Predict the structure.
Amino acid sequence: MKKNAFLIMMAAILVTATVAACGNGSASDNTAVEEAVQPISAADPPVPEPVRTPLRAPSVEERLAFRQQEPGRYRFNPEDGRRHMTILTARSRVIVLNRVSGMVNSLHVEEGDRVAEGDVLASLDRETHKLRAAIAAAEAGRTRAIYLRNLEAFAEEARIRIVSELELEVSRAEYLQAQADSALAAIELGYTDITAPISGHVIERRIQQGQWIGTQEECFTVADLDILWAVFMVPRDSWSQPPEVGDEVTLLVDPDGSNFTISGTIKLISPVVDPGGGIKITVEVRRTSSFSTLRVGMPVELRQEQE
């Protein structure tokens, strides 16, 4: 009995000490929290706001200065490992079609010859077309005489009008039609000479002397080989700065062969991005005496500019 009373008294002492300890710890914690969340007083200095510079487009002078300071603005990313290659093509390349049918009477040029715009490349037999032009001219003269006679007979000063207004209009229409037929026959007679539509070189001849050719038949191919184009499809992320028309780039000609570099000028930039994220860029190269070995079909590579 005494032992149980002693145990009960010791348990009561332990509980009282634990409660007192817990009460003292809570008060200390609350004080620390209250000090941490004290509001900033009016005397404290304000927090500075970040400075935001408004965006604006660079001026022409700034862009020119940028080009002078950054010669490598068209550097490709050397880490992507991509090569941008194409082949040289002629800026102007025209297939010459025949406009009238006939026998090829003579050839005046061969492949590789330089021609100027309007030069005669080949001639067809002219006799049939001469006769057609003569017949058309005679018909135009006959209908003209009839129309002038009817016009005189229908004049107001004529005593008796032996020509009706309808006959006068019919004769006038026949004369105008015959006049047009005569002009058309003269044009077709001129088409018996097949001429060059542009200045350049004859790169292909498709007809032979003595061959009969019909209308709209391919006869020659003429191309301007002095100005060559290289069309690249370049990903947008390949440029350190967006390209502009008129900028110069470096091309490596025949990377797996002769391997020499030339300069080119960006002439066209497509405003459309293809589904793969590429932009079509057309680079113009002028074929001079220094680069006389340039040929259509040569492979070229758009190279990284050096610092």
Summary: The radius of gyration is 46 Å. Confidence is low (pLDDT under 50) at residues 25-29, 32-43, 63-80.
